[in-house]
Amino acid sequence: QQQVKQSPQSLIVQKGGISIINCAYENTAFDYFPWYQQFPGKGPALLIAIRPDVSEKKEGRFTISFNKSAKQFSLHIMDSQPGDSATYFCAAGVQGAQKLVFGQGTRLTINP
Amino acid sequence: NAGVMQNPRHLVRRRGQEARLRCSPMKGHSHVYWYRQLPEEGLKFMVYLQKENIIDESGMPKERFSAEFPKEGPSILRIQQVVRGDSAAYFCASSTRTGVGNTIYFGEGSWLTVV
To answer: I want to staple A103 with a disulfide (CB 3.0 to 4.6 A). Which of A17, A72, A90, B24 is the partner?
Structure first.
């Protein structure tokens, strides 16, 4: 019940395209859903986060869509750029980011 | 950029030795978290500490692993008698507070290799 399932494991998108990564969870107590970006040899960096009282949040080219009834949330990267090539992790937490449960990660490659 | 500082960045230990990983939180942050990342996997929560207190250690292995965050100085993650399966990246994160609305910031990690 504590799992967060992320898909796909890897994704290749052409420059300028839309990258979509999906996550699903079971624990309805989760109240915080962040997305992290990680480059090789670096720590995860917070990209964008959402709480269950909203269905969508947009920050620049990054959008989180949240479906509370389906217990799913997704990250959309518009106008994907080669610099977006990284591993992306979704996560979920109870009472904020105190104890996050991470998905397995998606390795995104943007082809120029 | 006075972010979360971790050292050493890379550490090689022989089986049976001890590993000590240090973490200095961001300025003004009093909450520290340790996560472990195995190769090709997501991060797994290990422990959450405040100054001089362990708040939640539900993710810590029962043996050989310990963590502290003293009143003065960095947080320390200690692994005794390391085994090959301990090889991983260990990430520290910090925050100003806990609960709804908090954000945690990760350091660049300490990569432990056990040979």
So the answer is: A90
